[in-house]
Amino acid sequence: MAGGGIAVSVGSSKLARTDQESSVTNNASTIGSLSGNLTVQAGNNLHVTGSDLIAAKNVTGIAANVTIDSATDTSHQSQTQQTSKSGVTLGLSGAVGDAINNAISETQAVRNSAGGGNDRAAALHAIAAAGDVATVGLAAAGAMKGGTPSIAIQVSVGSSHSSSQSSEDQTMQRGSSVQAGGTATFIATGTGAPDSGNVTIAGSDVTASDVALIAKNQVNLLNTTNTDSTRSSNSSSSASVGVSFGTNGFGISASMQNAHGDGNSDAVMQNNTHINASNSATIISGGDTNIVGAGVNANRVVADIGGNLTIASVQDMTVSAAHQSSAGGGFSARRRLQDCVPPLQRRASA
């Protein structure tokens, strides 16, 4: 029974869902001296990635090229969901059908309000159930008092489908850290190649009493970037067809709907490099010095630059967009039963 009257529905429903998640997390390495100096020297490249250099006194790094930058953590999450439903409903309509439906609905409402759950109530409910037949008969008779009775059988078939997908991808930079109680010095000597001899610090921090960055070629103090990207989409569709046949004729109706949409968002967050010296900060480069998305903080800053000096800021940024659209339509048609009978047959029956 459905809707409180005479109606029978048969259908099915399916739900399918998937979830995926993956991540990469970097753990920092640490090299330190608890009471003295820390000196790191390489014949070619000195590369510190997502790690820490710590000394109670001085930290010194010497190589053809010196790079102190960040390690990249990543994460990915995605989800998909699909839902499908379909069914068939058989019911009554028309004056007689509506009267029967209303009568049964009222009978059921009275019965449900009885409550209690004891044996006497159960017995009364059994008597009331037997009275349903009489109720239906009285309702049908009442509907026919006004003239020609009308009753129709309705059959409707429908189905719907919906799906959604979403994903999020993130990158997070884990910068390096240099801490010295005395002086932090990094020297890039070069190899003789045109592009060698660079000191590059990206998305990392250097903190000391004095900081000295000395490069045969370039000194680059740069930012790194965190990213967050989300993608989502959805779609849905539904369709139904109904047919009715009764004393007043027959009818047919159909409808359908379709919708889909998507949404995207991209965010960029900057991680600055910080050079913090409680006393002095010295930058010496034979070529250019680039300070982009970085800060140099000291009581005294000394710079000797053989090429160009570039100082620039970087911005966080978020871009998002969403679209949704839908369309639908339907029709219905009815024809009286007498219009379906040929004129001669109608006169003969008359």
From TrEMBL:
Residues 168-179 have a biased composition (Polar residues). InterPro entries: Hemagglutinin_rpt. Pfam families: Fil_haemagg_2. One of its GO terms (molecular function) is catalytic activity. Residues 155-167 have a biased composition (Low complexity). It comes from the Bacteria. Residues 155-179 are annotated as: Disordered. This is Haemagluttinin repeat-containing protein.
